[in-house]
Specification:
The protein is an alpha+beta fold. It has helices spanning 11-14, 38-47, 89-97, 111-120, 197-207, 255-263, 278-287, 303-307, 314-320, 364-378, and strands spanning 6-7, 27-34, 52-57, 66-73, 76-83, 100-108, 125-134, 137-145, 151-156, 169-170, 182-191, 211-216, 227-234, 241-248, 267-275, 323-327, 330-336, 347-354. The chain has two domains: 13-170, 2,3-Dihydroxybiphenyl 1,2-Dioxygenase, domain 1 (Roll); 182-378, 2,3-Dihydroxybiphenyl 1,2-Dioxygenase, domain 1, CATH 3.10.180. The protein has a nine-stranded mixed beta sheet. The two termini are 23 Å apart. The chain binds fe (ii) ion.
């Protein structure tokens, strides 16, 4: 492990010095995927991941051109959308990127102000503020562009009591769903092209009022063969954290290059979901067929010398192949799925934090070697 990591700010310090937050965020509102077959993807998230179907929009609800399924677990909301029109933006998005994240929606108190403040600072507008109404009240939304073809939608729902958004009807899963203990979105990671990372960090700092939290250079994140660079930005209260990765030169092609080749632009690489009991979450996900990256037994040889004492049963940690890391404030446990679609693009992280507020730097090497083994099998290394 190197010492090149530069902690720039601690979360608690973000509030101090400087002007009041012009973009207060309550958290992630939803993550929307554009998908080739939303109905079947929704089944996967219900059966394998234990999400409950809570709302639906489609032909049966008067929507003629698309279908959307809203799935919830804890405070995590995923939306899966498919288009019926071969020429729509949704269909084009799926054709170009495969199934992928289109919208990282942010929950705000004032969507119009959020839009105006960010556009004033240079955000490229996607759709201006509009109010949607139904018998449960009203929701205001507005969207801006971020990296690749990804959007941030500001969602103001303080005057709404419905299941999701006006236009959606409440729905229920057809089978009994059993949650696996996932609570909130911990962070969402973006991959951008070589040389673009700093530009997007600047966007989050200047346009969104985020602060740079951590910098990882290619010495932190490298194996014998590949390297990448990453910077983590956070909003003022720390509820929304976006690491941004770019490829770095190595002997072989990094996982970021592979992602960009298959996603055909920058985009969301992984979504980290927080659990309070990673052992039961991962046990259950494995039982239901969710496929995780594999780290070899040797990972555990010096692990406990490195991270010290942990509360969890070591044999269980090994058996489930869970990764552990420690920072100054505590430790964390994490595990990464393989990509959840056929293209090697989007995947999930399961994370449990026991005081640690960092991102598992001590695991980067083992993790990236694990990804390289997968790349080798795919012929993309
Ligand atoms: Fe992560």
């Amino acid at each position: 492990m190197t010492t090149a990591t530069k902690p720039i700010h601690k979360l608690e310090e973000l509030h101090k010095n400087g002007s009041p937050d012009f973009l207060p965020l309550n958290g992630t509102d939803y993550v929307e995927f554009y998908a080739g077959n939303a109905k079947q993807s929704a089944y996967y998230y219900q059966v394998a991941w234990g999400f409950e179907l809570v709302a639906y929009a489609g032909l049966e609800t008067g929507v003629k051109d698309r279908a959307s399924y809203v799935l919830q677990q804890g405070k995590i909301r995923l939306v899966l959308t498919t288009s019926f029109d071969p020429n729509s933006d949704i269909t084009m998005h799926v054709a170009k990127h495969g199934d992928g994240v289109k919208v990282l929606a942010l929950w705000v108190e004032d969507a119009e102000k959020s839009f105006n403040e960010t556009v004033k600072r240079g955000a490229k507008p996607f759709s201006p503020p509009r109010t949607m109404k139904d018998e449960f009240g009203e929701v205001k939304v507005a969207s801006i562009h971020t990296y690749g073809e990804t959007l941030h939608t500001f969602v103001e729902r303080k005057n709404y009591t419905g299941a999701f958004l006006p236009g959606y009807q409440p729905a229920k899963s057809l089978l009994k769903t059993t949650p696996v203990g996932l609570k909130v979105v911990d962070h969402c990671v973006g991959n951008v092209e070589l040389g673009q990372m700093n530009q997007w960090v600047k966007f989050y700092e200047e346009v969104m009022g985020f602060k740079l939290l951590i910098t990882f250079d290619d010495k932190d994140i490298s194996t014998e063969f590949t390297a990448l660079m990453s910077k983590v930005v956070s909003n003022g209260n720390g509820y929304v954290k976006f690491p941004i990765n770019e490829p770095a030169k190595g002997k072989k092609r990094s996982q970021i290059d592979e992602y960009l080749d298959f996603y055909k632009s920058g985009g969301v690489q992984h979504i980290a979901l927080l659990t309070e009991d990673i052992i039961s979450t991962v046990t259950e996900l494995r039982k239901r067929g969710v496929d995780f990256l594999y780290v070899p037994e040797t990972y555990y040889d010096d692990l406990f010398a490195r991270v010290g004492k942990i509360d969890e049963d070591i044999e269980q940690i090994k058996h489930l192949n869970i990764l552990v890391d420690r920072d100054e404030e505590g430790y964390l446990l994490q595990l990464f799925t393989k990509p959840v679609e056929d293209r090697p693009t989007v995947f999930y992280e399961i994370i449990q934090r026991k005081g640690a507020k960092s991102f598992g730097k001590g695991n980067f090497k083992a993790l990236f070697e694990a990804i390289e083994r997968e790349q080798e099998q795919r012929g993309t290394l």
